[in-house]
Specification:
seven-stranded mixed beta sheet, alpha/beta, 16% strand, 200 residues
Length: 200
């Protein structure tokens, strides 16, 4: 079992305590990945950060409070700098914690992302299988390798192992349901609107 800290950031927010104004603002892709990690037997906690978040507090929670074994971060292009700062802080506090980056920016700008010193691996394309395979390898004490859709940086040589993306998942019913409890801490509790969000 691995403890996985899932990181997401936003630019515009309602409050630092509850940066997500409603349930429709939770990151759908990362939510499904978190559910897959839980289904595979891993422990997951999620963090939502914004430019004015107390980053030192969040980093301390992740490293010392949760004692995470792996960071799984998602970023669009505009949010990559903030995610990179947080991951650098995590690495400074505990250099042994690996960082797996996914999301739009990792998929469209993989060379830029994997070159960043805080990023150990990328998910290029859909991330459920990559995240679970990565966490499974770490929990066994193995170095992750040969994962379809992953770019993995060798910690000793810095060389990059690149594998082509896995085929798109055709049976979405096979995915576990999202665990909304992961995001309850970050959503405005006064928001009572009900919405349906669809993706893929």
């Amino acid at each position: 079992m691995a403890r996985v800290a899932c990181l997401f950031s936003i630019e515009y927010y309602d409050s630092l305590e509850h940066p997500l104004p409603g349930w429709d603002k939770i990151p759908f892709g990362l939510s499904v990945i978190a559910a897959c990690l839980e289904e595979a037997g891993h422990e997951v906690q999620c963090w939502v950060l914004c430019p004015d978040s107390p980053l030192d507090t969040a980093i301390d929670e992740i490293v010392n409070g949760f004692r995470c074994d792996l960071v799984a971060a998602s970023a669009v292009t505009t949010q990559f700098p903030l995610i990179a700062v947080v991951c650098a802080g995590i690495k400074s506090a505990n250099p042994s914690i690996p960082v797996l980056l996914g999301g739009v920016h990792a998929t469209i700008c993989p060379q830029e992302c994997i070159a960043h010193p805080t990023i150990d691996a990328l998910c290029v394309g859909e991330g459920e299988e990559v995240a679970v395979a990565w966490a499974n390898s770490l929990s066994r004490g193995d170095r992750p390798t040969g994962i379809p859709g992953a770019w993995i940086k060798n910690p000793g040589t810095g060389e990059i192992e690149r594998t082509p993306p896995a085929p798109f998942r055709t049976d979405l019913d096979d995915l576990p349901l999202v665990n909304y409890a992961h995001w309850e801490r970050w959503v405005d509790p006064d928001n009572r609107l009900l919405r349906v969000v669809v993706g893929r």
